[in-house]
Amino acid sequence: MEDQKPEELMARFEELAALEHEFEDVEEEIIRKAEALHAPLYKKRAEFVANIPHFWSLVFEQAPPEIDNFIQPTDSKVFAECLTTFEVSRFELHDPNGSPRSFSLKFGFSDNEYFEDKVLEKKFWFRKTKDWQGLVSEPVKINWKKDQDLTDGQTDAAYQLGELRKKLAADTSNGAARKEEAKSKEYKQLAQKIETATDASVSFFALFSFVSGYRWVSAEESQQAAKGEKERFEKIQRGEKVDEEDEDEEDPQDYQEIEVFPGGDEVATIIAEDMWPNAIKYYKATFDEDEDDEELSDLDVMDASDDDDEGEDQEPVDIRTLVGKGRKTGQEPPAKKQRKA
After folding, report:
1. Which of 6, 60, 73, 279 lies at 20 to 30 Å from 87 by C-alpha?
2. pTM here?
3. How far is the CA of 157 from the CAs of 99, 260, 336, in angstroms?
4. Are the CB atoms for 112 and 82 separated by under 8 Å?
5. List of domains in the chain
C-alpha cells in the first residue's frame, strides 16, 4: 500500500469521523426505542415496589463497587432509614435541541434528621463543545438541618457558585467570561473549601454538587457546537472539502479545583444505566443464600437495634419477612458487600 499524502490521510480521518457521528446517531435512536419498550415495565415495577418496604434501600445497599465506594456509613444510614423512592428519567428524550443521553436521578425521602427535602433530583445534560462531549449538571440545593451537613458545607458553596453562574449568564464558550467567574468570591470560597477539606471520604450526597468532568457547558454553547458539527459532517458526506477547525484557545484555568465530586458523571451513569434497569436483580442479591459474608446489613442492624429498645425477649425483625420471604431456621441474614479499603 502506497503512502498517502497528508491531505489524503486527513480526508480519510474526516470520513471516519463522519461515520462515527452516524454511529452516535444510531446509538441515540437505540436509547429512544429502549426507553419506549422499558417505560411500561418501569411503571409496573413501580407499582410492585410501592408495596415492598425498603426496596430501594436494599438496592443501593447492594450497589456495585464503583458506587459503594462513595456510600459512607452515614450515607448508608440515611438510605436505610429514609430512602422511599427512586426514579431515573430521560427528560430530553424527544427534545430536538436536547439529547436522549441526558437523564435525571430523583430520590424520595421520608422525614429524617439530616435534611428538610422530601425529594432531591439531580439532572445531567449531555452537551458538547468543539473538542469535548459529556455530562454536565447544576448544583442542587440541599436544605441541611443544623449541624447535619454530611458534606461539610461543600454542597452549599457549590450551589452558591451555580447561582452566580446563572446570574451572570455568561457565554461559556468565551474564555474571558470564564476567567471572570474564576475571579468571583464564590469561586474562590468553593475552591478553598475543597482544598482544606479534612475528611478524605466524600459523601454520596456531594454528588448533588457535581458540575462536570471538564467544565460547565451551557445549552447555547452545546447547540452551537452540535450545529457546526452537523454542518461539517454533511459536507463530508457530500464529498465537499471542509476547512480545518479552529482550535480553541488553551484555557489555563483548572476547573476541577471547584469540582466537589470528581467522577460524578461516571457514578451517575452507572446508577442510570445499570442499577436502575437492573434494580430487581440487585434487590434479589440481598437474599442470596450462598453469600459467605457474615456481616449484618445496615438494615438488619438497624432493625435489631430497634428491637433491643423494645425488649430483649422479642425476636429480631428480618427485613425479608416484611416482603414475604422469611428466613429458614439457622439461616444467616443477607450480607452487605464489603467496602474496598
Report:
1. 73
2. 0.80
3. 29, 10, 33
4. yes
5. 6-283 (3.30.1120.90), 290-341 (no CATH)
